[in-house]
Every structure is written in structure tokens, then in C-alpha cells.
């Protein structure tokens, strides 16, 4: 019986170690049907899909698919599709790679199922400053 317990503990330890350090990449999707990819929320600033890569499509404040574009559908304070519009009809959603829903990405504090974890709370509060230098903010937040 003692040998079985040791084997069981070893198996559990191996499983836990396999999952340790492998955080799910969180993806942002926008649009009315949430079918427009807007980038990876928690990826490295060197990842081409990262919202923290100022040279990539999703981290550039000039790209139409970027939440950091103050004049675009997904970054404007006035767009129905922007996380930064308090009254957006269709704010983006956050999902993991398996499609699990993490909430609506919106500054609207009364939106049902609003994403409310530390990273998005920082973005909600400082999004105007973050737009000016996403790479620098990545380092502040993740390092």
C-alpha cells in the first residue's frame, strides 16, 4: 500500500510540474459577432500577435485592428466595438486557446460578465498612457 501511495504521489507531481509555468495565452476578439482577432492579451512583447508588440499589427497605435488605435473601431472611446467606450454595444471578449470565456474586455463597470482580473484592471485604468508606449508598459506590468 505504501508503494502505491508513492507511485500515486509521483504521478500527481509529474502532472502538476507539466502544467506549472504554462499559462494560457489569452486572445481578444472583437466585432459584433466577436469574429475579428485583436491580438494576444498576455503574450510577450516580441510575439507578433501580442498587443504589447508596438511593431506588430495588434500593438501598433496606427493599425486598424489594434485596441491602441484611438481612431479605429477597436480603440476609440466612441466606437461600439472598443473596450475603451463606457457604452460600447459590442465590447471585445477574452478567451483562451481552448475557447474558454474570460469575460468582456470593457471599461464599462456595469457590464455583465466584465473581465475583472489584474491585467485588464490595469489596462482599464491606464489605457490612455499605455497607448503612448505599449512596450514600456509591458515591462512595467510583466517584469
Short structural description:
With 143 residues, the chain is an alpha+beta fold. It has helices at residues 2-19, 118-132, 134-142; strands at residues 27-30, 36-40, 93-95, 101-104. It is built from 3 helices and 4 strands; from the N terminus they run H-E-E-E-E-H-H.
Structure description:
With 143 residues, the chain is an alpha+beta fold. It has one domain (23-142). The chain contains three helices and four strands; from the N terminus they run αββββαα. It has helices at 2-19, 118-132, 134-142, and strands at residues 27-30, 36-40, 93-95, 101-104. Strands 2-1-3-4 form a four-stranded antiparallel beta sheet, with no helix packed on it. Strand 3 and strand 4 form a beta hairpin. Helix 2 (118-132) packs antiparallel against helix 3 (134-142). Residues 15-21 have low confidence and may be disordered.
Strand content: 5-15%
Residue share in helix:
25-40%
Number of helices: 3
The ordered string of helix (H) and strand (E) elements is HEEEEHH
Number of strands: 4
Please state the overall shape, judged from the principal axes of the Cα atoms: globular
How many separate domains? 1
Structural Rg = 18 Å
Topology:
Elements: H1 2-19, E1 27-30, E2 36-40, E3 93-95, E4 101-104, H2 118-132, H3 134-142
Antiparallel strand pairs: 1-2, 1-3, 3-4
Describe this protein with a few key phrases.
single chain; 143 residues; alpha+beta; 4-stranded antiparallel beta sheet; 4 strands
Amino acid at each position: 500500500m505504501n508503494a502505491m501511495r508513492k507511485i500515486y504521489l509521483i504521478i500527481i507531481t509529474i502532472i502538476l510540474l507539466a502544467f506549472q509555468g504554462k499559462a494560457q495565452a489569452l486572445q481578444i476578439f472583437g466585432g459584433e459577432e466577436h469574429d475579428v482577432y485583436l491580438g494576444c492579451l498576455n503574450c510577450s512583447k516580441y510575439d507578433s500577435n501580442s498587443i504589447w508588440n508596438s511593431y506588430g499589427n495588434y500593438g501598433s497605435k496606427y493599425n486598424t485592428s489594434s485596441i491602441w488605435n484611438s481612431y479605429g473601431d477597436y480603440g476609440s472611446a466612441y466606437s461600439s466595438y472598443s473596450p475603451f467606450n463606457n457604452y460600447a454595444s459590442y465590447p471585445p471578449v477574452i478567451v483562451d486557446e481552448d475557447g474558454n470565456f474570460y469575460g468582456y474586455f470593457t471599461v464599462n463597470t456595469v457590464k455583465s460578465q466584465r473581465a475583472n482580473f489584474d491585467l485588464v484592471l490595469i489596462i482599464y485604468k491606464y489605457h490612455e498612457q499605455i497607448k503612448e508606449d505599449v512596450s514600456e508598459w509591458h515591462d512595467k506590468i510583466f517584469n
